[in-house]
Each structure stands twice: as C-alpha cells, then as structure tokens.
Amino acid sequence: MASSQKNLSSFDSSSIPDAGKMRFGVVVSEWNTEITESLYNGVYETLISGGCKKENILRKNVPGSFELPAGALFFAEYEDVDAVICLGCVIQGETRHFEFICQAVSNGLISLSVKFGIPFIFGVLTTNNVKQAKERSGGKLGNKGIEAAVTAIKMVALQQEFENRK
C-alpha cells in the first residue's frame, strides 16, 4: 500500500496560497479525542503558518463523526466562513457501523459543498485500527489535519480566483 511507505503530509510550502484574508470553521469530533485533537493541532498550525489570523480560525466540537455534517451546516448558516474543515476518526469494528458512518459523513459534506458553494473538507480518518489512526494523525505517515488545512486553503484560493474573474 502506497500510504504505508511515506509521510503523506509533506508539501511544498511555496505552493500554498496566502491565507491571511481567509476565515475557516473547524468542526472536531469528540469521539477518539486523542486522534482528533492531533488532527486539529495539524490544522491549526498549518493555517497559522499559512498566514491565517488566530481570530479567523473558529472551532466547534460535535459528539462524533456522524454529527460533523450538522456542525458544518451550522458554520455555513451562522458564520461568515470561506471553508469548513471537518475532523473525525472512524475505526473499523466488527459491525457495518463503520460503513454507514463514513458514507453518511462523506455524502453529507459533498451535499453541503454543492448547497452552499464553499469547500467542506473531509478530514476524517477511516482506519482499520487505532495504530493506523495514530500513524495518520501525527505519526510516521504524517497528519491528515495538515492535509485538510492545505486543501482548504487551496480550495478557498481557487474559489476566490474564479470570483475575481467576474
């Protein structure tokens, strides 16, 4: 598997647009807190290093990953944000619960993107076990939070590029 061979969160910082005038909502699942807090730290540090002001990073927690789309919806409806980053961790168990949660979250976020016309970033780990989650939340394979923040910055910049052409 390719992801087991390298740190997936490495990127060229010069390729990241300036986030100085961007505003982000971040929704964090309280389930698997050790993992989601590491993801959030990756998001926060990346946004700050990209030029985003602390006061333009708004965080709200939700009980679990299933609630991420609702939390993201609240940001879109009640806050003036350029993008919403959703962070969670769903670990495969013995039942099909894993499949239902992952599918509901991904479908919910893409529906919100289409409805509101802003990026809703899927920063949810979907792993087979806790070890894999730790490896992808600051371990040897990087931090999916960093990747989510970079994606959010790039998508906001892309949208602004299109808007400026009008």
Please mark out the parts with pLDDT under 50 across 5 or more consecutive residues, or reply none: none
Estimate nothing, just give the exact number of structural domains: 1
Protein structure class? alpha/beta
Q: What is the CATH first-level class name? A: Alpha Beta
Give the termini separation: 43 Å
CATH architecture grouping: 3-Layer(aba) Sandwich
Summarize the structure in words.
It is built from five helices and six strands; from the N terminus they run βαβαβαβαββα. It has helices spanning 33-49, 68-78, 97-116, 130-135, 144-164, and strands at 24-29, 57-62, 83-91, 120-127, 137-139, 142-143. The strands form two sheets. It has a four-stranded parallel beta sheet, sandwiched between helices. A two-stranded antiparallel ribbon has the order 5-6. The model has no long low-confidence stretch (mean pLDDT 92).
Could you provide a short overview of the structure?
With 166 residues, the protein is of the alpha/beta class. It has helices spanning 33-49, 68-78, 97-116, 130-135, 144-164, and strands at 24-29, 57-62, 83-91, 120-127, 137-139, 142-143. Helix 1 packs across helix 5 (144-164).
